[in-house]
Amino acid sequence: MSETLAQPKPGMGELFRNRFIRTILLSVLFLQIGIWVRNYSILLFVIEKTHENPIAVSLISVAEFAPIFLFSFIGGTFADRWKPKKTMVWCDLLSAVSVFAVLLTLMFGDWKVIFFVTLVSSILSQFSQPSGMKLFKLHVPAELIQMGMSMYQTVFALFMILGPVIGTFVYQNFGIYAAIGIMGAAFLLSAGVLLMLPADRIDQEAKGKTTLMQEMKDGFRYVLGSKPLTLLGGCFAAAGLAIGLTQPLGVFLITERLGLPKEDLQWLMAAFGIGMILGGGLAVGISKKASPQVLLSLGMLASAVGFICMGFSTILWLTLAAQFFAGVFMPCINIGINTMILQNTEEAFIGRVNGILNPLFMGAMVITMSLAGWLKFNLSIVFIYEISAVLLLIGIGTLLPIMKKSSGTENLGRGL
Questions:
Q1: Residue 17: per-residue pLDDT
Q2: What per-residue string of b and e applies to 253-267 under the rule 16 or more CB within 10 Å gives b?
């Protein structure tokens, strides 16, 4: 019996022998190149064209984030109805077509059509992302899911540093036309790689037995009927409120608390990005031993400690160290969330669960982002950062019932 319980944990070799993991990581690599070239090339192009008009620049963020509210749940519902591999391939192909259509229009028409690139690819990602989660559930063994998510998040962390450099380099050296061409090529390459995924099962596409509205209602009932998912939703909301409070105020840590020029904000972002890259590798190791709820709690606790230190700090190196520390554990949050969703959701509901929880986080974040400026006028920045830390601790508290249950089940297994 002890030999059975002492089975070795799966390693990296076993992970990379999984055909789906290899394919999805290569696809994400191409997608990240396209997305970051898009983000920075379009940003710099609009700044140049409008002479730094803040309204025009803010419209880029609107085009990127508005579809999350408008299409996340709809996209997740359709992802549950459609074949996931086919959905992802078509989303990448349509993104590439829209990019090349904009390139032609840009060459002969109005430059403002550039906003269309961000809007279309952001909308399509609301259909593609939950389909990718469904494929994780289908093609990755349960014991490899958390490690696979760790590698997946490491690619994203790497591009937090490399992405802005690549996007800026492409635009400054080759111009907007070349940048758009690279975007389109990246989306096409991603679609081509996805064709190597295992074929969709015939029964994966809904055959019209239920209406779209009925499936939406079923999605809400499914989340409300699942204690882990309901508690995760509460955790999402608390984290969104906390991050929304601090995200617009980072520059005031530099100017008010440290007395430095606003341009030094870049060092704060660099410290966080470097921390995320190193944290991605750390999370791969931790994920072999820790449950996803422990990973999520660890990441949120590190962010809370980071917020407390950054709020009180008046020394540059301490502020950078706190930001770096929070960045190291940020991959734990992403890995924990995605793994918990996959472990606690049936394959048929993954799209809708994503479509409900993601807007919950974004909605909470937007609420406090919109209040951050007003709070800054009426409260000290130290107090705001401490409020954010408290909100993260409340989010951890919502996960305690799941962690207790997990711990009890594990101890029972050992006793048997």
A1: 82
A2: bbeebbeeeeeebee
Indicate the burial class of 5 (C-beta count within 10 angstroms; 0-12, 13-18, 19 or more): exposed
Token readout for 117 is 């690139």
Predicted local confidence at residue 308, as pLDDT: 94
The one-letter code for the residue type at 153 is Q
Say whether both 230 and 133 belong to one domain.
Answer: no
Encoded amino acid at 27, one letter: S
With 50 as the cut, is the pLDDT of residue 91 above it?
yes
- Give a yes or no: residue 4 inside a domain: no
Residue among 314, 87, 349, 78 at smallest CA distance from 200: 87
| Domain identity same for 142 and 248 | no
- Domain contains 1: no
Please give the backbone phi and psi of residue 140, each rounded to the nearest 5 degrees, phi first: -115, 125
Sequence-separated (6 or more) residues with CB below 8 Å from residue 32: 155, 156, 159, 163
Whether the CB-CB separation of 284 and 13 falls below 8 Å is answered with no
Query: Could you tell me the CATH number of the domain that includes residue 356?
Result: 1.20.1250.20
**Count of the separate structural domains present in the chain:** 2
Q: SS3 sequence, 100-154?
A: HHHHHHHHHCCHHHHHHHHHHHHHHHHHHHHHHHHHHHHHCCHHHHHHHHHHHHH
φ, ψ for residue 208, nearest 5 deg: 80, 20
Q: What pLDDT, in 10s, does the model give residues 151-178? A: 887 787 778 778 888 888 898 899 889 9
Of 138, 131, 152, residue with least CA distance to 89: 131
Q: Which of 154, 149, 148, 150 is nearest to 277 (CA)?
A: 154
Among 129, 164, 198, the domain boundary falls at: 198
Domain enclosing residue 136, as ranges? 10-198
285 by DSSP, 3-state: which? helix
Whether 325 and 302 have beta carbons less than 8 Å apart is answered as: yes
pLDDT surpasses 70 at 318:
yes
